[in-house]
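Sharing a chain and its predicted structure for anyone who wants a worked example. Both blocks are below, sequence first, tokens second.
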Amino acid sequence: MTRYVVRRVLEAAFTLFVVSFATFLLLKAMPYNLAALSAGPRATPEMVVQLAHEMGLDKPLPLQFLFWLRQTLSTGAALAATYAPPSLELLGLGSVVAALCAFAIAYVQAKRPNSLFDRGMSLITFVLFTFPSFWVGFVLIFIFGIQLLWLPAAGPNLDPSSQGFSNWTLGMILPVATLALTTIATWTTYFRGAIEEALRSDYIRTARAKGLPENQVIVVHVLRNALLPAITIAGLSLPTLFNNVIVIEWIFGMPGLGSSLVLALTQFNYGVAVDLVVVIGAVTILGSLLADLLYAAADPRIHFV
């Protein structure tokens, strides 16, 4: 297990280094003077030259990368500390709600194949799969935030204590529902296959023959059998989930990594935008690493891979 963990950590670190270097090359390939952009439109040529020297732009390319990487680690850590928590809150809550709903739907579908519920939910999940997250968000805002006035149309602020936990909870409902609805369709398909396989297995029939309560059979045996596919699909879905989080934060006006990235791009603040791209890449890589480690903990056979 230790060997596997060390290998995966080293692979994640190497992947993050490659992502950082690729981002740096893309930044260098842009047809803009980075020092002039950072200095602003009112800067004099002398100020631009001085800033370029401070940014290390007058050094050889390898030294520029090392200088840029050191700067990015410093500023990126500050950005992550400020904007990562709300993004991770949205990502975590949306993923949990999507997983619970997907498991419940998949279990009923597997128990009653070809039933009216099975066909109806298959159609609904297929339709949800075709809808982009921004469209789902706008529909929820229009229905529940504008027409019915049941929920706030804007998302919550950074800190729940600054606005009260109840207001923070109400503000999170629509963003979390948007992320969950755009995720349920894919996860339901994976869960259903795992649950159908579990329900046909011998150990499920043995557990029921022993007279175990149905709730215990579901939680101990069926849910455990569906745990490995759940971890797998969660790890594979992280890039898509982060893309949806970026869109949802912008739609609901939530301060997070996604909305900050869009704002930096619209203001041509490429320095902050690049730092945020690296932070989002780092969070995604760390999430994939965590999924792999959880998979190894759930399945002892993976320890020897």
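Comments welcome. The chain is about 80% helix and 0% strand.
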